[in-house]
Design goal:
heterotrimer, A alpha/beta, B alpha/beta, C alpha+beta, B: alpha/beta, Rossmann fold, 2 domains, 14 helices, about 10% strand, C: alpha+beta, Cytochrome-c3 Hydrogenase, chain B, three-stranded antiparallel beta sheet, globular, binds flavin-adenine dinucleotide, binds iron/sulfur cluster, binds FE2/S2 (inorganic) cluster
């Protein structure tokens, strides 16, 4: 009897599957695998081999899934169904923190559940690719989702190679299957009488040894390989991917998007069945008094309106904007963000779209391949997961380069530093500045333009820019725009709040060295620029002329009024102020902030500009700056987007290829390219 | 719910619960919050709730929950009066937010209906339509559903006491199907299902019970009902049969209404002759 | 809004909006020189035309629609309708599906009775205006009532997704049936509920009811082996005995000018009463042994029959019955082979009666050749009870004439409440009246 080893695949007779299940159970692992339920092959707990879908397969087409009996004993003769492993590794709802607030004092406690050992049985090649993709997003970026990481580490992957692709499958195009080449502990290939089994990790080797299998004879090994090869043959290459990201980006204004929106329901099914989609929101589950609230990470989708909502507006109101976000993210900007495709070709979004929208067809319609490429169908680069497909040139050229270092590794659930209100100053009728005392070294190490996430239990955490740094604390200037910001504005001296940060990339101060500086801002937009002014003035000699242009709706809507007068009195700083509507005691200028450019000369080619305000004001300002010869790499803007996490994990703040929280909020126009000011991004 | 509204909410707000044409199910949902009922009654001063208390009050109120649709002239006057006295008016349920199942009669042929049936047409005039509260007065917030969901009701009341934004997403039912692991009945052929165009909040109930969603929470934001209707028609379903799918408890809500109209109207007796 | 208008020699009692009942109704009693000249229970809930709304719909659509007649007893409407359609289609449902239907009904009875006993009716006996005042007096009692109500709601929610307007009842069975484990999960709540229900019986037995007795004709279903719910013959205390499909052979409806609801009566125009007191009177021998023992222990069977105020005891005993039966069903449950029997709609007459918490609920549908509804008639218990309630008000009047006016009015309102009238249910009749007159 030839025993198997790491190098020699073994043969597991069909009757031996229960032994495998017993071994896994003995190791204390819950086994999740395929079973028939609710009219589909779904992943659920497997206790015995008899729970597996023996003799079942499914016919899949856009918008349609029908189970069918095959009359064989084969247990894995189906293509992937509605569930994906992310239900286990990235469950729909996970409690993150429990926040408490009593007498103005807050505490936050980690609420992550444990991640008990588990085994996934029947993982396909495309699904392994999906797990590796989510690893890159959730566990290998600047921030780590601890719940995901723990669940992933607790999972043993038992792959079963796919020999029965559905009509909706296109893993061959995405280079993720049907062969299983990496990312597994055990890999099996099903034959009529059993399985050819090989190990892919030390844990898999140990398990294989304990199975005490005979070595698979060459006939079986070949049969297994042939079956997988035949599956590849059947799929062909329905989505030629070469150059696809660039073509998609170029198609941003295609009329096709509006055509798709006629059919798309924006129901979000495609994103939730997608094994790589990772966007989440945070829901607050609070008691009646708001004394205690659990923050839960919840599956969300870029197809919902709330996804890109900010206080006072929405960035993707139209369905065509949302569909464009989904398709371009999956097939183009994912490359920029993570160096890989966001699509693994499992076809779930095609089958489970209730109105049968087929991404393969839509891609071909929106971003048709050049004729030469069409002819080359069938040449498939085995791109991933073994070797990640090299970043397509057009996309890689646009990759962001960070002028200041990215923040240190962050985590979800967040840890908040309890911080006390030392001083409260009213700025305008709806805006206050709070000074917080803190000794938290991270918070104190912040840079101008960075922001913090400010959390009160029961309220959603709000991203707020630091409006001044002190040696022993920091200031936040907050406008009551909604419930959370109103609660923050109502804080009194001595109350505490949870702060986390600083986050994001701030203003590149050094970029202004030796240049003229022009700061253009409107309304509350002055808050994030105030630390920049502080920094410039602290090192005044490094910069040439500095001008601060500030617009507000009315004189009473201006922030830091006394400070502005002091600044205006300085000889080394030029301050211009303008209001939309003057009051009786306003003797200054009336109009929009760009009107202030009439005064004084702007040496465009030699200037660096920093801009913050409402999007409309920023686009108008940028037009003037470009007009005056300021180059795009010297115009810096800071952007507001809906933010749930602040660390690149929730997906909400995406703007084209960027996460505004992680890659911004400050961007140079050169970095943003055409994304700046584009509608619906 | 805006700042102006919240500023008016007292520490123990005076809460009124009123009903118009309805089945009482939505107000019953308040009593169905068994675990929280007594605590809620400490935090809210329930000054008007005819179904559960002998006290009657004429206001003023801080918050009024309104159940039922407007289907008589007296009701149309009454809601205007309530609105005047109420800083925060919340409509609860499909009747109040969309006209309810009884709004199907809005499609009936009024003239034939009236002439054949009633001795006093002037009285019938008032009964010709059943309309949502928002057709008559401004509404500050709404809880959808037939009936409303107890969880959403609790969320609203909690948010009101805490002063936070109630989490009442306007997304499709499908997200909840997926979160709870329900396999799509539309795609597996156990549909038809209105979930993709229906406002979430029920917890994706019907598909979890192996049947299609019948839209009792009404259209969601950006409800692309025409696309779904075209899809329903694809496998040989007649326009009339597609129309009946939308002709449920929120049929009169504009996105569903226009699809029903485009398909030739709901199944409803248009004049008394048909019934005879 | 208790109005008082006293003219010489005449006493009027008006309650414009009766509180703590489901829906909107008013009562009026006019007594002149010691003689009752008007006794009216008016139902002015805006009519919603359900009989008309279901025309053109399929039987399964009807099940969803008729539930909306009443948020308190949606299951009852679904039950009468589904049995009517299955009777027409000769659909033989599996015994365990039939049992699940009973369980569903038990859930609704528990929820509805607990609501009425604790939140609506008990406050009258204890001098409170509502359950909040009652809770101040006896918090444990209110919590017990809420726990019972919740147990009932949970049954309906497990079987039908939600306590109000459940979604799973389909012609031929259920869209989905629970697993054994799902039903077993109800057990702890039901065990506690049984104690609560028994405590309810003992609690209400301590109440002091006003002295008021009358001879009533009772009508309910009666089944050879079961306490009446989904099935049985229509019987009365004076010898009526009909198939559940034949209600119309013995009962008529007529419109009264003061109400949006039709009143039903039997040929001899002697009013009759439906509901818990009727069932206890006509079918006490079929009560679950635990409920039967509770009834015997308090010895109020006779009082239930004679005095409408003691209907609270009837409800309490039925609470015990419904919880005890629910427990038996949960324990003996074997999931059916098939959730739904295949079935094809056909033309014909579909009618059936079941026992809603408030009494006999009769449905009658004519189906056209496509199996769609051509016409419908739905006769809920409250409109059948209306005449009896008015007659009882007349007999009750002399005992309150010497009381101060608002006390008397209040006592009248309490009397109405003891019938647990569900006015939401009773309102869709105008349509039918009108058809009859046209
Ligand atoms: C980088 C950055 C820096 C900022 N700096 C400052 C600053 O210095 N000072 C300042 O005052 N503000 C600042 N803001 C804006 C501030 O974060 C928002 O005003 C605040 O988050 C609003 O939260 P809220 O709960 O008060 O408002 P709400 O309107 O209640 O919104 C709460 C959150 O939910 C979203 N939301 C609102 N309605 C819905 C809905 N119906 N469905 C789903 N989601 C919804 C919002 O977009 C927001 O994210 C900044 C924003 C960003 C991104
Ligand atoms: S593409 Fe399909 S599944 Fe995705 S949101 Fe649109 S309709 Fe829904
Ligand atoms: S069953 Fe209905 S609600 Fe659920 S995912 Fe499918 S279409 Fe959406
Ligand atoms: S990714 Fe969550 S806020 Fe940016």
């Amino acid at each position: 009897m030839v025993m198997t080893s790491a190098a020699v695949p073994g043969f597991l007779p069909r009757a031996g599957l229960d032994r495998l299940l017993d071994l896994l159970a003995a190791d204390g692992r819950r086994v999740i695998g395929p079973t028939v339920g609710q009219g589909a092959v779904v992943y659920d707990e497997i206790h015995h081999a008899s729970d597996l879908p023996a003799g079942w397969t499914a016919d899949q087409a856009p918008g349609s899934y029908r189970l069918r009996q095959t009359g064989t004993e084969r247990q894995f003769d189906y293509a992937v169904g509605p569930t994906s492993w992310k239900h286990e590794t990235f469950p729909p709802r996970v409690p993150l923190t429990i926040g408490r607030r009593v007498n103005g004092q807050v505490t936050f406690e980690d609420a992550l559940p444990a991640a008990p050992p588990v085994a996934f049985l029947g993982v396909r090649g495309c699904e392994i690719a999906a797990l590796l993709t989510q690893d890159a997003v959730l566990a290998r970026g600047i921030a780590v989702d601890r719940d995901y990481a723990a669940r992933r580490a607790a999972a043993l992957i038992i792959a079963v190679e796919c020999v029965t692709p559905a009509d909706t499958c296109f893993c061959t195009s995405m280079g993720t299957g049907p062969e299983v080449t990496t990312g597994f502990d055990l890999a099996m290939t099903e034959l009529d009488d059993g399985f050819v089994v090989r190990a892919g990790s030390p844990a898999g080797e140990r398990l294989l040894e304990r199975l005490e299998l005979t070595a698979a004879d060459p006939g079986r090994t070949t049969a297994a390989q042939d079956a997988v090869a035949a599956a590849r043959e059947r799929m062909g290459d329905p989505v030629p991917t070469a150059g696809l990201p660039a073509r998609l980006i170029a198609a941003a204004e295609s009329p096709q998007w509006a055509e798709i929106a006629e059919r798309c329901l924006a129901c979000a099914n495609c994103t939730l069945v997608c094994p790589t989609c990772f966007c989440t929101g945070v829901t607050q589950v609070s008691d009646l008094d708001g004394f205690e609230a659990t923050a839960e990470r919840t599956w969300d989708s870029c197809f919902t309106l709330g996804f890109s909502k900010v206080a006072g507006g929405n960035f993707r109101p139209r369905v065509q904007d949302r569909y464009r976000q989904w398709l371009t993210h999956k097939f183009a900007t994912w490359w920029d963000q993570f160096g890989m495709s966001g699509c693994v070709g499992c076809g779930r979004c095609i089958t489970w779209c209730p109105v049968g929208i087929d991404v393969r067809a839509e891609l071909m319609a929106v971003a048709p391949p050049p004729p030469a490429l069409k002819a080359a169908v069938g040449i498939i680069e085995p791109a991933r997961p073994t070797t990640v497909k090299s970043v397509p040139p057009a996309a890689s050229a646009a990759l962001l380069t960070a002028p200041i270092p990215l923040p240190a590794v962050e985590e979800l659930p967040p840890t908040y530093a309890r911080t006390f209100v030392a001083e409260r100053r009213r700025e305008t009728v709806d805006t206050v500045t709070l000074r917080f005392d803190t000794s938290d070294p991270d918070l104190l190490a912040g840079r101008p333009g960075q922001f913090v996430m400010a959390a009160l239990p029961a309220f959603s955490a709000a991203p707020i820019s630091v409006s001044r740094f002190h040696r022993d604390g920091l200031e936040l200037t907050i406008r009551a725009a909604g419930a959370a910001t109103r609660a923050l504005c109502e804080l009194r001296r001595g109350d505490s709040v949870g702060l986390r940060g600083p986050m994001g990339r701030g203003w590149p101060v050094d970029a202004a060295e030796g240049h003229d500086v022009v700061i253009v801002t409107g309304g509350i937009g002055l808050a994030p620029l105030r630390p920049l002014v502080d920094a410039l003035l602290a090192d005044r000699t490094r910069f040439r002329e500095i001008r601060l242009l500030y617009g507000a709706r009315s004189p009473a809507d201006r922030l830091y009024v006394e400070e502005l007068s002091e600044l205006a009195a300085r000889p080394d700083l030029d301050v211009g102020q303008i209001v939309d509507r003057a009051g009786p005691d306003w003797f200054g200028r009336v109009g929009v902030v760009t009107g202030l450019f009439d005064q004084g000369h702007l040496d465009g080619p030699n200037a660096v500009a920093y801009v913050c305000g409402p999007e409309r004001m920023m686009t108008a300002t940028v037009d003037v700056l470009r007009d005056r010869g300021v180059s795009d790499d010297r115009i810096f803007v800071t952007l507001e987007r809906h933010m749930e996490c602040g660390v690149g994990l929730c997906g909400h703040c995406q703007l084209g290829k960027s996460f505004v929280c992680r890659d911004g909020p400050v961007f140079s126009l050169a970095e943003m390219g055409p994304a700046f000011g584009r509608e619906g991004l | 719910m805006t700042g102006a509204v919240r500023a008016t909410i007292a520490s123990r707000p005076r809460l009124g619960i009123m009903k118009f044409a309805s089945c009482d199910g939505c107000q019953l949902t308040i009593l169905d919050l068994e675990d929280h009922l007594l605590d809620l009654l400490v935090r809210f001063d329930l000054v008007e709730f005819a179904e559960a208390s002998s006290y009657r009050s004429s206001g003023p109120f801080d918050i009024v929950l309104v159940e039922g649709s407007i289907s008589t002239p007296e009701q149309a006057e009454e809601i205007v009066r309530i609105r005047r006295e109420t800083p925060l008016l919340v409509t609860i349920g499909a009747c109040a937010t969309a006209g309810g199942i009884q709004a199907l009669r809005n499609w009936a042929d009024h003239d034939a209906y009236r002439a054949a049936v009633y001795a006093h047409p002037e009285y019938v005039e008032s009964l010709a339509t059943s309309t949502p509260i928002s057709d008559h007065v401004a509404v500050d917030a709404e809880l959808r559903g037939c009936p409303i969901d107890p969880g959403q009701l609790l969320e609203l009341l909690t948010a009101l006491t805490v002063g936070r934004r109630p989490q009442l997403p306007d997304e499709s039912v499908c997200l909840e199907c997926k979160r709870r692991g329900t396999v799509c009945v539309l795609v597996t052929g156990n549909g038809p299902c209105l979930g993709p165009v229906t406002h979430t909040g029920c917890g994706a109930l019907c598909p979890a019970y192996a049947r299609g969603c019948y839209g009792c929470f009404g259209p969601r934001e950006a409800a692309n009902a025409p696309s779904l209707a075209r899809w329903f028609g694809r496998d040989g379903r007649s326009d009339a049969d597609t129309a009946r799918l939308f002709s449920g408890f929120t049929a009169y809500a504009p996105p569903f209404r226009s699809v029903i109209d485009s398909l030739g109207g709901p199944p409803i007796a248009s004049h008394s002759g048909e019934d005879a | 809004m208790h109005g008082t208008h006293v003219t010489t020699g005449e006493q009027r009692f008006d309650v414009q909006g009766i509180t703590r009942v489901e829906g909107e109704g008013s009562l009026r009693l006019v007594v002149r020189d010691g003689q009752v000249i008007e006794s009216q229970l008016a139902i002015f809930e805006a009519p919603r035309y359900f009989e008309r709304l279901v025309v053109g719909r399929t039987p399964n659509e009807v099940l969803d629609i008729v539930a909306r007649i009443c948020g308190i007893c949606p299951v009852a409407y679904q039950m009468s309708a589904v049995h009517a359609f299955e009777d027409l289609g000769e659909v033989a449902i599996e015994p365990s599906v039939r049992t699940l239907r009973r369980l569903l009904y038990c859930g609704e009875w528990i929820e509805s009775h607990a609501l009425h006993v604790y939140l609506l009716h008990a406050p009258d006996f204890l001098g409170c205006a509502n359950a909040v005042e009652l809770a101040n007096l006896d918090r444990a009692a209110v919590e017990r009532g809420l726990a019972l109500k919740k147990a009932g709601n949970r049954i309906v929610a497990v079987l039908g997704g939600r306590p109000i307007h459940p979604v799973s009842v389909r012609v031929g069975g259920f869209s989905k049936v629970p697993t054994k484990r799902e039903l077993q999960a109800l057990r702890p709540d039901l065990d506690a509920a049984l104690d609560h229900a028994l405590a309810t019986v003992d609690w209400v037995a301590t109440f002091v009811a006003p002295d008021f007795e009358r001879e009533e004709r009772f009508v309910s279903l009666r089944h050879p082996t079961e306490y009446p719910m989904n099935d049985g013959r229509i019987v009365s205390s004076d010898g009526l005995d009909l198939a559940p499909t034949d209600w119309e052979t013995a009962f008529q409806e007529e419109q009264v000018p003061w109400s949006h609801a039709l009143q039903a009566h039997m040929g001899d125009r002697v009013p009759y009463l439906l509901g818990p007191a009727a069932r206890i009177t006509l079918a006490a021998d079929q009560l679950h042994p635990t409920a039967r023992a509770a009834l015997d222990r308090i010895g109020l069977a006779d009082a239930i029959r004679r005095n409408p105020y003691w209907s609270i005891a009837a409800r309490a005993v039925e609470l015990v019955h419904a919880v005890a039966e629910a427990l038996d069903i949960v324990d003996g449950y074997v999931p059916p082979e098939r959730a739904t029997e295949p079935w094809t709609p056909s033309a014909g007459t579909a009618s059936w009666a079941t026992e809603a918490p408030r009494g006999l609920l009769f449905h009658h549908y004519e189906l056209d050749e496509r199996g769609r509804i051509a016409s419908a008639r739905i006769v809920p218990p409250t409109s059948q009870n209306q005449a009896a309630i008015e007659a009882d008000m007349t007999s009750f009047a002399p005992s309150i004439l010497d009381e101060p006016h608002d006390v008397a009015t209040h006592r009248l309102e309490q009397l109405i409440r003891s019938y647990d009238p569900c006015i939401s249910c009773a309102t869709h009749f105008l349509d039918l009246t009108v058809e009859a007159s046209s």
